[in-house]
Task: structure prediction
Amino acid sequence: MTRELIEGTKFYHQEFVRLEREVAEAEPAWIHRIRQAAFSRFSTIGFPTPYDEEWRHTDVAPLTRIPFQPATSKPQTLLKEDLVEATFDQLAGSQLVFLNGRFSRELSEIRPLPNGVIAGSLADILATSPEKIEFHLTRYADYEAHAFIALNTAFVQDGAFIYIPQDTAIEEPLHLVFASTAEDMAFITFPRNLIVLGENSRSTIIESYIGIQNGVYFTNAVTEIVLGKEARINHCAFQRESPKAFHLMTLAVHQDCGSRSSSTSVMLGGALARSEVHAVLKAEAIDCSFSGLYLAAGRQHIDIQTMVDHAKPGSTSRQLYKGILNGHASGVFKGRILVRENAQKTDAAQTNQNLLLSENAVVNTTPQLEIFADDVTCKHGTAVGHLDAEALFYLRSRGLGEEAARNLLVYGFASEIIDRLTIEPLRLRLSELLPQWISGDNLPWRLRDHAR
Amino acid sequence: MTPLLEIRNLHATIDEQKILSGVDLTIYEGEVHAVMGPNASGKSTLAHILAGREGYEVTADLVTFQGADLLTMRPEDRARAGIFLAFQYPIEISGITISYFLKAALNAIRKHHGLEELDAIDFLTLIKDKMQFLEMDQNFLNRPVNEGFSGGEKKRHEILQMAVLEPTLAVLDETDSGLDIDALKVVANGINALRRKDRAMLLITHYQRLLSYIVPDYVHVLLGGRIVKSGGKELALTVEEKGYAWLEKEVQGTAPGQPIEGQSE
Result:
């Protein structure tokens, strides 16, 4: 095992040396220092093993055995229609597209934005005005204890940078699309997003991670969201990676007093996918809500980890995650709520429900509440079940065929999350995808030849 | 005339426990039959078997609906052919609104009959009148199926479904249970309004009470998994007056060797 892991990290060492040579001269000293510190941290801790408590049910060994190459920047002939097909109907707002990890100006569409708003590529900002991100970048996603955040930080190059100044509202959703194609070699991308909302500002932002073809690749993504006082964000993540892909993503949310965050994720792609949410509530009167729907079939493995840290009094957190597993799929949910000693009047709730559509699907669900304050309201509930035979009979006795009845029940189970998707095209697409997915059509989009 | 429903010598077993042991019943179009019986007599089992519930071991000399072999049909095929079971305990389905559910069901049945599927507007027009008649608020349509419904709402919802799906044979399983007198009247009025020359009904009930509001053409008493006595509407009153014990004794007297036992459903 150890030998294998060393082999697994060796390649990243080589790559890091190469990257250092490439960027050392050009980039600001501060980012260079962070890069080195993060890589050094990665070298020390190495890849997690099932012996690590946080990774007990998710074995990343298959991922460490593949020598992922950095994605090449060869020209692509991807069309905007391909993106629509893999995601959903185009939104009215701006769309930033990243192709195999790098910003694509051709595929992106930047619409007029209010004064002072920045919506662009992190690489551009690093090259032209790095001072705009110096304060926030890498400050919230802690790489000290997390190999994949460390790796992402060490290799940080591109992603989206969104900045909304104070008292500014953007009505139209901003769409960040991370599209991966298939290449001759298995490749790795390190999307890094920084979203900063100033005091009393508002915005809706969607991140889509999609596989355009049946490629083997590894998306190692980190998004940091920073909310100023009274700021409000409506965030969505749509993950539909290639069925052969690895997808690890961490969302780190930092909120100031009176701010509100809502993040809903939909996850249905990847061979191995893990989504982490880390929220540290270090101010009062914060409201945060995290929810997600995860679908896994075949031999997919999906892992959801949440950590909501109530560090100050009087904040509210909500979590609602629903999983549907079919075939031989396996799922993991671990939801942690930490209420620190002085975080009185905390109101925290967490629900995880799982629907198993086959005998061979499994799910491990662990709520973990650590409460050190005495005047708090904390609730949690988990459930794992199969489709209700009585309900199936009820529907069939009304004339619905068996398949339609199953679809309806599954849709009913998922609807609590689907209804939270305020972005209509995404909600509609999911309503279409769900029955296709249940009937075993795990790859409903056509694998386009011209996208090669 | 071909009977709408014909049952000859129906037996049913679940978990090696005999529930029905030789039921005979013939129903013609336009007739309203009531099957009465004490708890665990097998009357709900009979209703569920007609609707196609799985899990029973069923044998019979003959069970036909409109001349077709009913027992080989899937539940959805029976519904499409015109059988409707109003559940004693309607199932809660979260996340699906009544309007979505009913429209899907109606269109599945219409499609089977080669009719055009209704769109949302046509459907709404159709259902509005029916809801008014059952004294149901329109907000009802946007509520999840049976979730958080009172007993009365659940039963009214079952009758609404029947009104929308327009079955040829409606089997009403203890529709009176759990209803107060006002709710019972509304539900009974709804059912009576759906009586038609080309529609038969099979009322399953423990008590005579329902039959004061919905007057049946025939009454059958089910005891120990068999119909032991049939008659007109007055039989219900006799049962109410004398109780089922009276028939248990009578049956034991007339049919030695056929012990009548309490069966659990």
